[in-house]
Amino acid sequence: MLLLVVDIGNTNIVVGSYQGELLRRSWRISSRRDSSSDELSVLLRGLLADDATRVRDGIVASVVPPLTEPVMAAIEEIVGVEPLQVAPGMKTGLRVLTDNPQEVGADRIVNAVAAHARYPGPSIIVDFGTGTTLDIVTKSGDYLGGIIAPGPRLGADALSARAARLPRVDLSVPQRVVGKNSVDSIRSGILHGHAAMVDGLIRKVEEELGEAMRVVLTGGMAEVIGPLMERVDATDPDLTLEGLRLLYERNRNR
Description:
Layout: E1 2-8, E2 12-19, E3 22-30, H1 37-48, E4 55-62, H2 65-79, E5 84-85, E6 95-96, H3 106-118, E7 123-128, E8 131-137, E9 142-150, H4 152-162, H5 182-209, E10 214-219, H6 222-225, E11 234-235, H7 239-251
Parallel strand pairs: 1-4, 4-5, 6-9, 7-10, 10-11
Antiparallel strand pairs: 1-2, 2-3, 7-8, 8-9
Helix pairs in contact: 1-2, 3-7, 4-5
């Protein structure tokens, strides 16, 4: 039996197939808001190939409402049962201590669940996606809240869109912090600037809470920005997928 786990984000849909606790394969595809369930079913079957007939259930986390139902329907067409959806009321193993727990993004709860299980002790989970999020979890499993900032790609796109003479650039790390041309100057400002921002936020969180935190990075840009940061304890590209698997295990008796 295989479990299909799907994280629907604003930029990408991340898909993984698990056999027990083993992540067999994973894929990252673009989030097209006009995708139909038929298109998504064909796409998922193509990714899974011969494994498609071995998938017996699924779980979905989504922060893109227009894609939630098409993805759910596509998975149901493949596996024959409606997949679980990460939503308020699920057994998470965390206490969500925010003003309104229902407004916390599903992906942030999923990341917190995985980090609390994989990395004991108080932690800050930094997810570099369309937005960069920092989520704070205590040693005892309390989700305290977090921080949301525009992500690196969003910042670069906004800069080129609003500044007529600045080009759109690929986000590769320049050789020097001080750029010698416009492209490297933008790259440095976005990447080194983002790393410095996150390092600064980590320090402020630790000062506010009065304790050192374990810093766990995930998301599409984690492996690019992580080496530029001062404080990184772990980089875990599969953190969200692992959180989905754990939530499935805790809620599969439905």
